[in-house]
Amino acid sequence: MLLAMNRNEIKGIASLFLILLLALLGTHILHLTPRNFVAVTSPVEDTDLTSESQKTNTAELPSTISAPKVSYKVSSSTPQFVILSFDGSKSVSFLDETLAFEQKIQAEGKPLHFTYFVNAAYFLTPQNAKLYQAPGEPSGTSMIGFGDSTNDVALRVQEFNKAFSLGNEIGSHSVGHFNGSGWSFDQWKQEFTSFTSLVNNVQQNNPSQHIDAPLFLSNIHGFRAPNLGINDNLYKALSGSGFTYDGSDVNSSDAWPTKDTYGIWHIPLGTIYLGTDRRPVIAMDYSIWTRESQAKEQATQGSTLWNQYYNEVENAYLNYFNTNYNGNRSPIVIADHFSKWNDGVYWEAMKAFAENVCGKPNVQCVTFSDLVNYLNNSGAPSRQ
Prior knowledge:
The protein is an alpha/beta fold. The protein has one domain: Glycoside hydrolase/deacetylase (TIM Barrel, Alpha-Beta Barrel), CATH 3.20.20.370. It has helices spanning 7-24, 92-107, 150-165, 185-200, 202-205, 232-239, 285-293, 304-325, 341-357, 368-378, and strands spanning 30-32, 37-40, 58-59, 80-88, 115-118, 169-172, 222-223, 245-246, 258-259, 265-266, 271-274, 279-282, 332-337, 363-366. Strands 4, 5, 6, 13 and 14 form a 5-stranded parallel β-sheet that branches. Strands 7-8-10-9 form a 4-stranded mixed β-sheet, with helices on one face. Strands 1-2-3 form a 3-stranded antiparallel β-sheet, with helices on one face. Helix 4 packs across helix 6, helix 7 (285-293) crosses helix 9 and helix 8 (304-325) runs parallel beside helix 9 (341-357). It is globular. The two termini are 38 Å apart.
């Protein structure tokens, strides 16, 4: 039959097969772009200020998900890195909650540090929002709103300084949370310049009360793209803007990071498998929320459904860890947001996971930059 088809007909069947495969991964909206098929996987963070029509976040799903597993030359002395991160930064109270948990398990002898990818829009208020102009957008426009007040901004700087002083990493999640997958090199540079300016000049931009200097700014070396919207122009711009890594890729769960020709390390989010039918999904809370409850608030803590979701996610995380820990030791990379979907079940599952694995022999629950330092010194293991 295939012999009787022309090349375009065969390509059409292949494209249809790819669409069906992506649907099985738990995605619910597909877009066709010149770059590739992409799928909705996570919304705008801190969604209290966004409309439903704005909650469209795209991320390229791993083409390697059904590929043969890769073997690396590792040994029992190869560190098992566990990288837990957050996107957003609106809720200062949630930031405090994460730091309290971190200090709790450190006191139990389980070292842990987080990476926080922050949006600089939250260092402005609605009153001075026009100081920011996103590429191709009117000034004062943000997909996630701005800080609530000058006092809110001051508290945010204070608490991220505290997080940084405790050994956590602060990274960039851009300013206004726009999908830059279609941006030019100059547009990416514009956004990075805006990010640095708005954080560096936070006191000047909000003069009505004292705001501490953002001590973490000079140590921002990593980036995660809003909507995981990436392109080659991004990597060129990162290279020229002092960044060392990008955390926006998605890959199979057994992949070690790679460095591109611009000198940027690509540290991908992993893929986990939910439930008894092992449904593959990106290791990110919103992707899981979408897969389990179609991005709707359906579970309340203590209910049968909440417990089911909790067990599914914790078990998926532990299976991800055990496979890598007992295999090729590729880094575990999991992301949450500053939002407690399904009554906080995904944050609770992350905490239970950290309690279980941090402190195990040769396990390092550290930041992205800690992993980059290891990669720069030792390199990624070679493939067998």
